[in-house]
Each structure stands twice: as C-alpha cells, then as structure tokens.
Fold this sequence. Notes:
mainly alpha; single chain
Amino acid sequence: MLRSTIRRASESRGEASTAADPPSRLRAFFWGRSLDECIASGRDNILQLRLIAALLVLLGHSNLAGPSRVPFDIVHALLPATYTHVTGLFIFFVVSGILITLSFQRRPDLARFLRARFLRIWPALAVCVLAWAFVLGPIASTLPLSQYFAFGRADSPYHYVRENLSMFGFSTALPGVFANARVAAGQVDTPLWSIPVEATMYLYVAAAGVLRLLRFPWLTSLVIAGFFTCVWIWPVSHGELQYMKSLDLTVRGFFGAGAILCLLRRYVRVSNGIMLAIAAACFVARSTIHALPFAFLAIGYFVLWFAYVPRLPRMPRDADLSYATYLWGWPLQQAVATFGHVTTPILLFAIVAPIAMGIAVLSWFFVEKPALRLKDVRLPRIHFGRRSPSPPLAPPAGDMGSLEVPQPPAQA
C-alpha cells in the first residue's frame, strides 16, 4: 500500500515536471508513446473509430441516390487519390489486423480463437441476411411470391442465404429486389463481399499462430511486407494494377499492415507530431504521383492516432454499433432511394444513418453481445462407451500407505 502510494506520488511529480518543462513537452508531442504502451494503458477509442468507419462507408455509398451537384465525398476532397467509402473500409481492416493478431498472441488457443471470431461475425450477419431473404425481400420485390420463392433461380433467396451465411461466399441479388434502383440496380447488400475477405484473414492469423510464427515478430513482419510488396505495392506503383479494381487485395494489404503494427508495437510511436507531419506530407503530395502512398500512410497512422491520442467519452455501455451499421447501411439506402425517391446523397445519408444505428443498437444488445458471451463456454467432453472406474493401485509390499486401516485401541 505504501509502495503504491509512493509510486503514484512520484508519477504525479514526474508528470508535473514534464508539464512544466518545455523541452519535455515538445519531446512528448513528437515522440509520444509506443503502441505497446498505448495498448497496455487499457484506454482507447476503438469503438468510436469503428463507428466512424461504418458511417464513412455509409456516406460514401450515398451516391446510390444519384449524381449530386453538392460534393459529399469529404475524403476525396482532402485526399484526391482515394474515396470516403474505401477509407472507412481501410480503417476497418487496419483495426482488425491489430486486434485479431493481438487476440491470438494473448490467448493462443486455436479453438477459442475460431469460436470467438465466428461468434463475432456470424450471428449479426445471419439476422441481416435472413431478414432480407425471407421477410423484407419479398416485400420489396416486384415479383409475386410464387416466383420469388421458386427453386432453380440463380438469384433465389436460398442461394443468397447459403452463399452469405457460409462466410466464404458472396451473393448480392434477390429476385426482383431493387430491380428499378437508380444506381446499382439489383444489388441488395453489396458490402457483404468484404466478409469472406475478413474471414480468410482470420484463418491466416490462426495458421500463423499455430505455426508459432507470431513468436518471431520481425521475421513474420518481413514476410508479410515482402508478400504485399510483390503482389500489390509494386504493381500499383508501376501502374500495372489499379487498387480500386482489386479492392479485395487492397484491404488484405491494410489488414497485413495492422498485423505488422501489432507485431512491432514496441517500436511504433503514436504521437500528435507524427500525425501532423504525415498530414502535411499528404497535403504537399496530394497533386503528385506520390499522392496514393501518402494517402494510405495517413489512413493507417490515423487509426493509431485516433484510437489512442484523443481523450473521448466512452461509448454508452461499451456498445459496438459499427458492424450492424455496416451490414444494414446499403440495403436501407437502396430502399429509401428506390421507394422514397430520395435523389440527394446528403439527404439519403441523413435519413439512413440514424435508422441503421438504431438497428445496430438492437443488434448489439440482443444478438451480438449475447453471442459473444458464448466464446468462453466450454463444451462438455463426450466419451464413447461407458468407462469403468480403475482399481486402486496396491501399495508397495510391506507398506500399507494410505490404505492402512487404523486398529481400535486395546480394551483394558
């Protein structure tokens, strides 16, 4: 007790001296803390950051209302090399790369890891997919129910459910649903394409963990960096590959970048000064051939800065509203634009965002959070056949040991 009190007093004196010393404050501004120290502090803005990422995806998809004279793509205005919706997607994958790698490092239990990943993705996905396939889809379809539920169609609801709930397939069409949409006709929930990519990256992390590669952070980081340099960075920088046309490979690269940040977190610094320097470099390079790499660097480092530097209020009851907002955003935008005849992207975003977050609240407290409680549930072991109890081992000769029966005292 006394030792902890002395330590707290010394820390407070150190903070006071740092605050009063301008060189120390300048060093703290530019040097900050390591990512490892940020994670160990236990305080972050990950939930807020993920919700912002989901809203960026929603805002970027507001062009489903049609062309607009009023610019609404705020990220493209700041970073002409990229767009708002893909920026939100990149943020999601950097965060996942950090957290998923950290999860296996802290609890290297393969069964628990896979169970936790499944329970985080599948329940909310199942509710959304089943709701649109069998409840909302028939209502929104232009076809009669007999044709909507007919077997043998390539866009049947059964195919939609089977592909999307497998977590490694993808289907975005339902019979007659949003067939008359102004933009992206017939696409029910296009953002679901990223779910198989995310699930595949989980398996890569699990494989790396099982092979003990996560115990060698520098070697594993070099392998990840070398792989994505060969298949993505080099072709994109030489004009052989457009990142928007190979978006699945691009988001895998951001997941890999997050994994590297996690593996080398002792050496990664998080500070206001570095964020300011990267932002200034982006502004200078925004009209040059180096705009894209600086934009990607800014997005990746913004994840670290926003997650650990600002002191933001906590999300109420630690609710994670990002996933369901992401799942429900596109179909809600399609429905409002198609049946509500909304033709202004900003208005479409203003209408759909509160609805999607309202659904996300219900999804979190009634689907996602209860499901996550099951990740630590241990299933009982099943023994085939009846096991007979083993006989007790006989003690050594001449020694009764614990099997010796005490004799009653002799009678007088």
